[in-house]
From TrEMBL:
SMART domains: AAA (SM00382). The keyword Transit peptide does not apply. This is ABC transporter ATP-binding protein. Transmembrane segments: none annotated. It comes from the Bacteria. PROSITE patterns: ABC_TRANSPORTER_1, ABC_TRANSPORTER_2. InterPro entries: AAA+_ATPase, ABC_transporter-like_ATP-bd, ABC_transporter-like_CS, ABC_transporter_ATP-binding, P-loop_NTPase. It comes from Zhongshania arctica.
Length: 316
C-alpha cells in the first residue's frame, strides 16, 4: 500500500532549546486508520502541527500525497483536514456560514448537498442557523469536525477529538470515521481513550520524549506484546504460595481466593500444563478458570515506562 504521508528525519527544536521531535521518520499508508499514542508532552501535537503547516520544522522532509508541505504548501494543505484539540472558531458566525467559509478557503466551489450531508451526520442540521457562541461544548466540537471535512480532504487528522465530549458525540464520531475510511479517507488520530485506538486503528505508533519508539500493525502488536493472564478461582483460600510455586510467574490476590498466572502467547511452551500438575501435587483445587489478554493500554504504559529516562517535562 502506497504512503500518502511521508515523514523523513523530522526534528523540531524550539528557541528555548527544547527538542519536541527527534529524528522522526514515518510513512502513513493511504486509506488506513493510524493511531499515534504518547503521554502529554511527547510530541504528538507538534508532529501533527508540522504536517498540517501550522508549525515549521527545524529540519526534515514531510510530504502529503507527494506534495512537499513547505515548497508546495497549498497543494499539500488542500489534501488535509484537521480537527484540533482546542475549540477555535468565530462565535458570532452561524454554523452553516463558518462551514461554508472553511470550504471556500480551500478554493472548493459551493456544494450545498455535501455540506448538508456532513451537518446531518453530525446532528448539526437543525442548528445550522444558530450562532456558534450559543452552542454547547459538544456541539462546538461537532462544528470543528464539520469544518475539517468541509473541503472533502483525503487525509483527516483528529487530535484528541473525543476528549471531554459526551458519549453520544463519541459514538457519532467513530461511526463517521468508519464511513470516511470506507470512502478511502486516511485517518490519523491521537487519543487518550486507548480502547478507541484498540478498536479502530490498523496500525499503532508510540511516541515518547520526541522519539517514535514503535510503529506496528495493531494485531501484530497485540500478539507480540499482549501477554495473557490465567485467573484461577480457588476452592479454598491460600494464605501464601507454596515455596515450590514461587519460581512461577504467579501472584495471589489479597483475599487468597485467586491465583493469577502470566504467560507469553508467542513462546513455544506456556507452562500451563506443568502449572496444573504442580497445583494438583500441592492439593490446590480450583473451581473456575478465566483467560484475559493484556490490553493495548497496558502495552502502551509498559512501552513508555521502559523507554522513560529522567528529563524535564515540557508541554507540546
Amino acid at each position: 500500500m502506497s504512503a500518502i504521508i511521508s515523514v523523513q528525519n523530522l526534528n523540531k527544536i524550539y528557541e528555548s532549546g527544547f527538542q519536541a521531535l527527534n529524528d522522526v521518520s514515518l510513512d502513513i499508508r493511504r486509506g488506513e486508520i493510524f493511531a499515534l499514542l504518547g503521554p502529554n508532552g511527547a510530541g504528538k501535537t507538534t508532529m501533527i502541527s508540522i504536517i498540517c503547516g501550522i508549525v515549521n520544522p527545524s529540519s526534515g522532509l514531510v510530504t502529503a500525497d507527494g506534495h512537499d508541505i513547505i515548497d508546495d504548501f497549498r497543494a499539500a494543505r488542500s489534501k488535509i483536514g484537521l480537527v484540533p484539540q482546542e475549540l477555535c472558531t468565530d462565535g458570532f458566525e452561524s454554523v452553516i456560514s463558518t462551514v461554508n467559509f472553511s470550504r471556500g478557503l480551500f478554493g472548493r466551489p459551493p456544494n450545498k448537498a455535501y455540506i448538508e450531508k456532513i451537518l446531518r451526520q453530525l446532528s448539526l442540521w437543525e442548528k445550522r442557523d444558530a450562532r456558534i457562541m450559543t452552542l454547547s461544548g459538544g456541539m462546538k466540537r461537532r462544528v470543528m469536525i464539520a469544518k475539517a471535512l468541509s473541503h472533502e480532504p483525503e487525509i483527516l487528522f483528529l487530535d484528541e477529538p473525543t476528549a471531554g465530549v459526551d458519549v453520544e458525540l463519541r459514538r457519532d464520531m467513530w461511526d463517521m470515521v468508519r464511513d470516511l475510511r470506507k470512502r478511502g479517507v486516511t485517518i490519523i488520530l491521537t487519543t487518550h481513550y486507548i480502547e478507541e485506538a484498540e478498536e479502530m486503528a490498523d496500525r499503532i505508533g508510540v511516541i515518547s520524549r520526541g522519539k517514535l519508539i514503535l510503529v506496528e500493525e495493531k494485531d501484530a502488536l497485540m500478539e507480540k506484546l499482549g501477554q495473557k493472564q490465567l485467573r484461577l478461582q480457588l476452592q479454598k483460600p491460600l494464605l501464601e504460595l507454596p515455596e515450590e510455586l514461587k519460581s512461577y510467574p504467579l501472584s495471589l490476590t489479597h483475599n487468597g481466593l485467586e491465583l493469577i498466572y502470566h504467560f507469553d502467547t508467542t513462546g513455544d511452551q506456556t507452562g500451563i500444563a506443568d502449572l496444573f500438575q504442580r497445583l494438583n501435587e500441592h492439593g490446590i483445587d480450583y473451581k473456575d478458570i478465566q483467560s484475559k489478554q493484556r490490553s493495548l493500554e497496558e502495552i502502551f504504559v509498559s512501552l513508555v515506562t521502559e523507554r522513560a529516562t529522567p528529563a524535564t517535562e515540557a508541554a507540546e
